[in-house]
Design brief:
This protein has 351 residues and is an alpha/beta fold. It has twelve helices and 13 strands.
């Protein structure tokens, strides 16, 4: 089978540290996921990523603090006020702290994420952040995944102990959501101006999204100098308005991860690539970061995802090991060697 000269040139450039253009990324996403070129693309992205990040993986943990009918009304999310089947709940501060300890006590968690609905109690969030900061190791960073917020709130979050924010102007924002794309981007400006790390993502990708719109959306993260880029597929949730469209395969998601990885070569601020939800195909396609999850999860239909879709830290460590990563990077940039003895350490220390 003949490989095109253009494709070879793009791959050669990536190996030299030069990312593809928007037009070239569109072409890469148009490749059939079962094509030889798509397999080469994934392999090149994996090679480039491991060289760039020193074959070090990153473990992240997210606590879904509350559930309520969300005014964002995203048609792909289990919390949308017009279609949610979940009862309102909120973790107590003690419950948040207990779950924070379950993520952070091994001291290999890079960052702990605290997630709320789009509309949230800001003062309560500050209280939770302050308590969590007192409890977890100082090298473990704190990141918020919340609704839009302003510059004053960003500085308050930073001064209380927040290091970064996950915030995205998502695919078909304002069409598949009730949110304003302009407001989402204003919050991206706020995050950057406050000196917080921006965690971005190409999401939530479904079968109906075209290569052109995927590239335009992922490029927002590059334009804003995101600290983390990522790709996430939309989960086909029963009762959600977009369920009829189904979901892409993990194989297709790996191809998108690979394109995000190569496109991010031209973004010097990007320090890691994540895949949502955690899977081995993504971790051998350029991703080096995965999330453990507990509490609320917008891709789940139960109130506590840790007993359903969400992985715990042990499962994430094992997945990183199986993907061939040899160390885990912590929030202070020190690394923990990752080998079979390390995987067994929790059992040794607990027994």
């Amino acid at each position: 089978m003949k490989i095109s000269t253009e494709f070879t040139q793009v791959m050669d450039a990536a190996l030299q540290g030069k990312g593809p253009s928007k037009t070239q990324c569109i072409t890469l996403l148009k490749l059939p996921e079962d094509s030889l070129e798509a397999r080469i693309l994934v392999g090149i992205a994996d090679t480039v990523s491991r060289q760039q990040f020193g074959n070090r993986g990153i473990l992240l943990g997210q606590i879904g603090v509350d559930i309520s009918p969300c005014t964002g009304n995203c048609r792909f999310c289990s919390f949308g006020e017009d279609h949610t089947t979940l009862a309102p709940t909120q973790l107590s501060i003690d419950e948040v702290l207990q779950r924070a300890h379950s993520f952070a006590d091994m001291e290999d968690l890079y960052a702990l994420f605290l997630m709320t609905m789009h509309t949230f109690d800001f003062e309560h969030l500050l209280t939770v952040v302050a308590r969590v900061r007192q409890e977890i190791p100082m090298h473990t960073q704190i990141v918020v995944n919340i609704g839009d917020f302003d510059a004053i709130q960003a500085l308050e979050l930073r001064d209380t102990g927040v290091n970064g924010a996950y915030h995205v102007c998502r695919l078909r924002e304002g069409v598949d959501t009730a949110l304003d794309p302009t407001a989402r981007k204003q919050t991206l400006d706020v995050i950057r101006e406050a000196g917080l790390d921006l965690y971005y993502c190409c999401e939530p990708v479904g079968p109906e999204h075209t290569p052109e719109e995927i590239v335009e959306q992922l490029w927002v993260g590059i334009d804003y100098g995101c600290f983390q880029h990522a790709a996430m597929r939309r989960v086909a949730l029963p009762h959600s308005p977009l369920y009829q469209y189904g979901q892409i395969t993990e194989r297709r998601l790996a191809q998108i991860v690979a394109v995000v990885t190569l496109a991010s070569l031209d973004c010097p601020e990007t320090r890691n690539i994540a895949v949502h939800e955690p899977n081995l195909l993504g971790l051998v396609a350029g991703a080096n970061a995965v999330y453990a999850e507990t509490g609320a999860n917008p891709r789940d239909i139960v109130t506590d995802t840790s007993a359903h879709r969400g992985l715990d830290m042990a499962a994430c460590r094992k997945m990183m090991y199986e993907a061939g990563f040899t160390a885990l990077l912590r929030g202070d940039q020190t690394a923990v060697p990752l080998d079979i003895a390390y995987l067994h350490q929790p059992m040794i220390t607990s027994g």
